[in-house]
Amino acid sequence: MSNPATIEDVARLADVSIATVSRAIHTPEKVAKTTRQRVNQAIAITGYTTNAMARSLRMGRSNMILVLAPDIADPNFSSILIGLENEARASGYGVLIGHTQNDAERGLEYLKFVSSGQAAGLVLFTGHQPFGHQALAERLPPSVAVFEPVFDSKIPYVGVDDKAGGRKAAEHLLSAGHRRIAFIGDSKTRLGQQRRRQGFDDAMNAARIAPENRLVLDGDGTIESGRLGVEQLFMRDTLPTAFMCVNDATALGVMNGLAARGYDIPREFSVIGFDDVPQATYVKPALTTIRQPRSAIGKQAMASLLTMLETPEQEPTEHLIIPDLIVRGSVSEPLSASLR
């Protein structure tokens, strides 16, 4: 059986130094594109691998990070994952993806990677601690939550500042002249949604908007919940001039609901979302929203987790990134103001 390829083999074939091969693998942005292509081609030809699992077996400890996600089709997931993987790879770690599909049994199965020592750390997209056998859940490795903070938990969170983003969204609607605004997506169990609602309330309080002009509806963050919110408000006959939505999926549902009734956006109703998913630019009008810096979130989350692995005594902290307002075409002044 032939010996496995080495980094020296790759360097020789690509006609570069070993240091350049290492940089091309771990920090590709620091290597010229043509050089990077030669290195990648040499890796493909030689079969050289930096497989983290194999390296873990040699070192006697795991260099794998388990990522638990309820829905890998969520448009936020892939961009955060890129940041997670790039940062892990640069430090010699690999990533295992556990797609739970919101199934507690699947989550328990993936936790066995932890109990068997195959995963050194845990990244949670789920918004809650893993369900299942208590003994496994109580022996979690260093963990960090992304995208959704873990409710009633000491697990540190790295993500967007939901409260600041919620306030930015509401202030944008207020600055356009809206004084009767609906918030779609309140929740008693999802901490991220609660924080966005708090930002909404802070902006409305600062503008001295009366409680009766704040129309707050629950929602689970789906397109259907946005459409249902529109129907509920029409049934009550208490209509806002603008909709602030807890995320872009809800906003798309609101826009669908209004369009089905023949209303023009933004002339008759304004809509703002949160996340800036790719679909936000494809709808008509394009959706004004709050952008999550997803790749940066992934990179910071992995950096925080790796720090916890190297220095377990360090107290974990929450790291929040201020989001940006992305102005497109779904917000304008209220119709009544434009008619004056």
UniProtKB/TrEMBL annotation:
SUPFAM superfamilies: lambda repressor-like DNA-binding domains, Periplasmic binding protein-like I. One of its GO terms (molecular function) is transcription cis-regulatory region binding. Residues 5-59 form the HTH lacI-type domain. Keywords: DNA-binding, Repressor, Transcription, Transcription regulation. Gene3D superfamilies: 3.40.50.2300, lambda repressor-like DNA-binding domains (1.10.260.40). InterPro entries: HTH_LacI, LacI/GalR-like_sensor, Lambda_DNA-bd_dom_sf, Peripla_BP_I. SMART domains: HTH_LACI (SM00354). Signal peptide: none annotated. This is LacI family repressor for deo operon, udp, cdd, tsx, nupC, and nupG.
